[in-house]
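Hi D.,

Good news: the full-assembly prediction came through. Inputs first.
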Amino acid sequence: MANARDKKYEFVRREDAPILPPPATEAGITGWLWHNIFESMADYSSIGAGIRSLSMAILSVLILYFGGAQIYALIDFTIFSAVFSDPEGIKREACWTVDQGGALPSGWHGACWPFVVAKQKFLLYGAYPAEELWRVNLTGLVGLVGLVWVLIEKLPYRREVGAAMLTLYPLMAFILLTGGNTDTEFFNIGIWLVIGLAIISAGRLGKRGFLGSTFSEFGTLIGFTGWVFLIFNAVRGVAAVDFGLEPIDTRDWGGLLITLVVAITGIVASLPLGIILALGRRSEMPVARLLSTIFIEFWRGIPLITVLFMASVMLPLFMPEGVNFDNLLRALIGVMLFSAAYMAEVIRGGLQAIDKGQYEGAQAMGLSYWQTMRLVILPQALTHVIPGIVNTFIGLFKDTTLVSIVGIFDLLGAAQSTIADPSWSSHVQALSVYVYVALLFFVFCFAMSRYSIYMENKLSKSRSH
Amino acid sequence: MSRPSSLIYDRQVRSLVFQVLLILALVFGAWWLGSNTLVNLAAQGKTLGFGFLTQTSGFQINATLGTWLMEYNVGSSTYLDVYVIGIINTFLVASLGIIGATILGFTMGIMRLSKNFVIRGFATIYVEVLRNIPLLLQLFFWYFAVLRSLPNRRGQIEIFEGAAGINITGLYLPAPLPQDGAGIVGIAFILFIIIAFWIGNWAKKRQSETGQRFPAFWAGAGIIFIGTALVYFVMGQPIDWSFPVFKDAGPLLRRGFQIGNGMAVIPEFIAVWLALTLYTAAFIAEIVRAGILAIAKGQTEASYSLGIRPGTTLRLVIIPQALRVIIPPLTSQYLNLTKNSSLAVAIAYPELVSIFAGTALNQVGKEIEMIGMMMIVYLTFSLLTAAFMNWFNARVKLVER
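Then the structure:
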């Protein structure tokens, strides 16, 4: 048989064809420009397509002009035209134009940064005493380190740090910020501690069967109650210790400090309540389900501002005589109840996403309802809804600005009151401080929304494989 | 059954006991709060009751759209009138805000999906900036920074010569003054809208039965506009227009817009409307984008392979399916917008929270009744929205064959 190899070919290619660069319209800057800008306005093959392409081109130019003008106006206001320093200490006159009696050219429009710098302390801390600011800074620093530690996935002891952030840190923050030394009697606390210990011992004994068979069934529950007593009063005890810190009334707090305190307390405190409400709404017990649903829908149906009004006006009426909350605590209670309802709906979404097999598997293992929830369902559900929780937090963070309406000077409230300062009055006074506050809010919210998107992608990846 | 420990493990007994305990706790809590309240009220010398609603109120309310929409007189109007005006103002700004936010939000949402980088980039920046800055701050920005820099009350920026202008006291527009017979024009207008919808349904039915198309949109629009105009002229033009009058000559104190001419839209209203519209539109844009992205790409491709053009594909294939995803979160944004209109209290726009739970409450001091009445308004609106959403979800649910 004639070998195929012997056959004479005209041409045999010995090497690979050269790899040609992609067409100019597909790669590099030209390709990007073509696909993202010019392709949509390049089709003139028919009248309809021509009209579409042309209107697209006109729209692009208009938007480019309008958007560019806005962005340039912002940059011009904040940087190019802005006044950065006030070396002579002439305050408002540093930001006055010639017509107003200052030195700047007529028609000048730029940020008055010396004003914002002068008000910096007030915007961040309110009327908090200047020599005690290290307490706020320390609290913030510890919080930031703890948060970053929990968020970075490569660090060790993340779980322990997270637990400390949720338990010890709030206590520390409370003592540092208010000064601790609450007027609670130690004798009182001591008695409650002894009672707590007694209940725990009773629970232990009951569990071992020393107190009869009926009692032994409730051993765990009694022990748990005892621990709640013990921990609650231990916290009260620590808060009552005199650390030698000067007490600072919450009326002196303000600015970013209040914004962060309200938002973080609101979200952390609303988590446990939200979990209970979400479980209640999915419960098989009609009464629990009905009550949870009514609670959730009530708080979700009214605006936060009415909640704050209610907290500041009606809460004092509800309390027995002699019990008096300060203004901030009232707002905190309102914010907490309000965000608990939203949190409950987020968590309910997570609970609904859990496969039915997980419940059945847990039941088949003989786990009780609370064991099922604690060990199987909630860890999965809460992980699924981290993006939702972060989004709720962003919403709450922005909504804390509303406390300024009930007379608490949060970041926006502080900004609003700096505008009333006549020694800095100028035509750009309001705009300068608004731009600064908007920037602060934007940085916080934008960073959190990116984190939420990152978690969402990560979770959907881990779910799909 | 006899041993108590078996009762403890009985699920029904457990849940019954738990629920009874829950009800007891609730009753006790309500009793505790109620008795505290009664004690506190008695200590302040107050009683419960709604008698205050018929008292005459003692404060002035800025008329939102001039005196054109509502009557209110200090000395003769009651607190019930204040309540009603608050509700009207809340829903006025909320409904106009919903219209504006929907239009802008859909535009921005579709722009965010554009292949054109300029358009996409603009919409992205818009959405990211607007939704990451608190609404209250945006409200302050519009009210204290932008609207305060308008010309003072002796000057104006003319929008349409002799018909519309704006200065620091507000936006001045022509006001319609209904004369005898204007009601008939209104009724005719509504009637024509119903006819237009009926034509639309008929055209749809005919197309699905016979394949013949009918330009229902143009026919409907024509009937509404031409028909209404016809009735308007037949009735002898029963709507007069009052135009704003601006004087820039004469005694200095008499210059500016003249009171009683045209419709004066107060700056608070403009600021609230702008802030609500722009803020909510950013959220709606995200909802619209997510809704369109949720439609499988195969739908677009199938439509293209049938030879349907991109615009028509969007209108007939993508949007109807995307609406199923979009409508529920969109409704909750409408609800949010309505609730957020309460922020207007910060710049004293006369809506429910501001005049009823604010000024009126300070005068009357009936905290429980007044805050309760205010909450009922918002709760009713929420429940109505929820009911609508359930109805809609049931209606558009995928019919699986």
